[in-house]
Amino acid sequence: MLSHESQQQNFHSSLFDICVPAGHVYRRILKHLDMPRLRTYIASTYSTVGTTGYAVESAIKMLVLQFVEDISDREMERALRENMAFRFFCGFTPDAQTPDFTYFTKLRKRIGTKGIAELFNTFTAMMKEKGYIGETFTFIDASAVISKTNLWKERDAAIAAGETTLNNQNVHNHASDTDASFGAKSKKKKWFGYKRHVAVDMKQGLITKVVVTTANVSDNDPDIVASICPNQGMVFADKMYDTADVARVLRRKGCANGVILKNNRKEKNRALDRWRSGIRMPFENIFSKMRKFARYRGRVKMLFQGFAESLAFNLKRVAQLCPLG
């Protein structure tokens, strides 16, 4: 006869089998989370003295899942308490105590931007080793991340201080997010906040590099392009990147130039640019799947958001590509 503990374990296993059936997206994501490798850096941030907290593996999984589902700290607390699929993913038994919402703020501070970058880069390296990243064709682009700031209030404060308008020269004196700035893609598309610059490997559509800047930094800033550019292959980008500085960066990095040329360029080959546009088009919708609003204030925290969201995107993408057998 089975012991009480064995019976309880069997019950928990059966419950999870019902709530999280074979082929569930969480099982497919977990298949690609090499926890012994991912936990290496994060474990070093944990103290070996004092009371025992939640396991490092569970902490990483909770952080990942919160960004996979794009939910708040309070929503995460409730989901872990009530949702068996969340408990299964994060390594909690059905009757285990789960953290309250304050835990997630402490967790992000503990891991920090360096830690989330380490998780992202480690997972990217794992996907490269498995052959999901080829570094033959790479797509680079930037997108807006809008800051949650009441600009009417800031504008009134600027006017009261004797300013005639609110702009990038004075907004830092009045905005609650002093790092954010105004940016524009065109006359109609303007925003206040940040800009997310990414590189996407075009073999399977996985994000390989992430940089977050204030909104007023140009897409084609050569230092930013150098930061996200690979060291081989061809780099595709839109007309915004058709500058001499970007061309020099690509040559220096050993990459072929796949940037679409501006219409006024004498050497423009429209047939070639149509091909470049067609190759690039399937990967442009990546930004539509990522959060358009800032979760936090400050560039460092926004960089944390950029890495965490890119890691979550890659996990969901890999789960689509590699169903559980």
Largest sheet: 6 strands, mixed
| Mean residue pLDDT | 88
Structural class: alpha/beta
- The whole-angstrom Rg is 23 Å
- Distance linking N and C termini: 33 Å
Q: Which series of helices and strands comes N to C?
A: HHHHHHHEHEEEHEHEHH
Number of strands: 6
How much helix is in the residues? 40-55%
β-strand amount: 5-15%
| Coarse shape | globular
Uncertain residue segments: none
The helix count comes to 12
Describe the model.
Strands 1, 2, 3, 4, 5 and 6 form a 6-stranded mixed β-sheet that branches. The mean pLDDT is 88. With 325 residues, the protein is of the alpha/beta class. It is 46% helix and 13% strand. Helix 4 crosses helix 12, helix 5 packs across helix 6 (84-90) and helix 7 crosses helix 12.
Primary descriptors:
6-stranded mixed sheet, 46% helix, single chain, 325 residues, 13% strand, alpha/beta
Give a short synopsis of this structure.
The chain is globular and about 65 Å long.
Secondary structure layout plus pairing:
Blueprint: H1 4-19, H2 25-31, H3 35-43, H4 56-69, H5 73-82, H6 84-90, H7 102-129, E1 137-146, H8 151-160, E2 181-184, E3 190-201, E4 206-214, H9 222-228, E5 234-237, H10 244-252, E6 256-259, H11 270-280, H12 299-321
Parallel strand pairs: 1-5, 5-6
Antiparallel strand pairs: 1-3, 2-3, 3-4
Helix pairs in contact: 2-12, 3-7, 4-12, 5-6, 7-12, 9-10
